[in-house]
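Much of what follows relies on a compact textual record of a protein's fold. Here is one such record, which you should read through line by line:
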Amino acid sequence: MTSPFSSASGPLVAIGGAEDRTSELEILNKVFDLAPAGNQEVAVIATASSIPDQVLPDYDAAFSRLGASRVHSLGIRDRQEAADADTVRLIEQSGVIFITGGDQLRLTNVLGGSPVLNAIRQRLQDGAVVAGTSAGAAAMPGTMIYNGASADALRKGAVNMTFGLGLVDGLVIDSHFLERGRFTRLMEIGASNPEHLGVGISEDAGVIIHPHGILEAIGPGHVILIDSRDLASSNITDLSMGEPVAIENMILHAMVSGHGFDVEARRYLVPHELGAILTESR
């Protein structure tokens, strides 16, 4: 498989939602620490949220506490605002771009094909960190989940997929993963497209997607990986819509902070292995 990662780009951080924004700020601190040297400006994009006026002040306060020189609070409610030159300029000068939770379909509808999304992609390519929580995380890949039952999604057609923001390929990300019992959502996706690695992120947990194809778990929660690349068999092509899916040899990993995964090699990395790889790649 051709690598979906670019060695020239900056890190992505996908967060499972409900991250601490008022106390220890563990995950947000990790995000802020990844900013390129000398650039402590943060752009917070609340397009996905239905209550941006309530969400944006929380992130403004959190990133200010962490030492941000400026925090740009960007609601971006429609496609006209997603084309605004001043908004684009604020993104272009930020070292951290943070996308809040809410509705990932609103994100792709408002930002898809826009100057704002082009600016985000360029900043990532230039080395800025792009982070997203909940819907902001789920929308990051080229393919995203936007609907599907949590309890019994291991049925043909039970999970709705569409194009995401295209910040990374080869992954499908699901948030609030353990709290909402979303295992079968990623299993159904793995059965239909074994090439995609399923990344399920619990609340107050995150995963750094390093440019060279290494995943690093952060925060106090779990990151669950569902790897279907060596799938032996599945009945999914023989089924009618809604019928139960059978799967042989789907692999599951549960990562905690300090553990990692090599996406190309499909290899779990214990802390000393992850540390050695990250040190070598710097």
